[in-house]
Design a protein that fits this description.
Blueprint (H helix, E strand, L loop, with lengths): L16 H15 L17 H9 L11 E6 L2 H22 L2 H7 L10 H4 L2 E8 L1 E4 L2 E4 L3 H19 L2 E2 L9 H5 L6 E10 L15 H4 L6
Antiparallel strand pairs: 1-2, 2-6, 3-4, 5-6
Helix pairs in contact: 2-6
The protein binds 3-iodo-tyrosine (IYR).
Length: about 220
């Protein structure tokens, strides 16, 4: 039997309704300027900012608190280049052969192609890995709800990066198996998403897309 945790009082700060509404509104507004970008500048990141964002992501809840994630940081130009070459090889195959007509049509308005020069331009790439299981004292230890857990950590990370003043792209070269090999990750870790992280290039443009309104995404049931 594993021992229970000790339970400690939770220091929750309860706020008044007006303050709650204002904080919720301001937070929503701060997220409205967040965009995925594909044109990055080569400007270096300030010391410590990325680490703080990874710390924030690591605060995400996870199944049985297993924290089944690794944030692999790449700044080495030779490794960035290796990632670009491997990602473009997969993406070329995807765009030219594997993609379905329906998927191609869905991507057309975004104008994306198999070419990923940003993988070399950016000051940093973070590859988020999902631990399907862990090895503790030589024993295989199952993790739970790893997809959900890592998805939540990714959400925390995206918000932390935006708040810190960094831009990113949630990039999923397809398939991503090469990342485990290039980055030397163990067999229990599966690549979840790749994030180029930096600043927008001076001429960076983003598609003029919008988000669904509250009435389209909120469904009320009952009275
Ligand atoms: N992985 C490819 C294709 C791609 C797929 C979706 I769905 C997008 O929203 C964007 C791109 C790529 O990164 O280009």
């Amino acid at each position: 039997m594993t021992e229970s945790y000790s339970f400690v009082p939770y220091a929750f700060e309860r706020r008044g309704p007006a303050e709650m509404l204002e904080r919720a509104r301001a937070f929503r507004e701060s997220l409205e300027s967040r965009r995925s970008i594909r044109d990055f500048s080569a400007d270096a990141l300030p010391d410590g900012v990325l680490d703080e964002c990874i710390r924030a992501a690591g605060l995400a809840p996870s199944g049985a608190n297993r924290q089944p994630w690794s944030f692999v940081v790449v700044t080495d130009p030779a490794i960035k280049r290796e990632i670009r070459i491997a990602a473009e090889a997969e993406e070329k195959e995807l765009y030219e052969r594997r993609i379905s007509d329906e998927w191609r049509e869905a991507l057309e308005p975004l104008g994306t192609t198999w070419e990923k020069p940003f993988l070399e331009t950016v000051p940093a790439i973070v590859v988020l890995f999902r631990h399907v299981y862990d090895i503790e004292e030589g024993e295989k230890k199952t993790n739970y709800y790893t997809q959900e857990s890592v998805g939540i950590a990714l959400g925390f990370f995206l918000v932390a990066l935006h708040r810190a003043g960094l831009a990113t792209l949630t990039h999923t070269p397809s398939p991503m198996g090469f990342l485990g090999k290039v980055l030397g990750r163990p067999a229990n870790e599966k690549p979840y998403v790749l994030l180029p992280i930096g600043y927008p290039a001076a001429d960076c443009r983003v598609p003029d897309i919008g988000k669904k309104g509250l009435d389209e995404i909120r469904v009320r049931v009952g009275e």
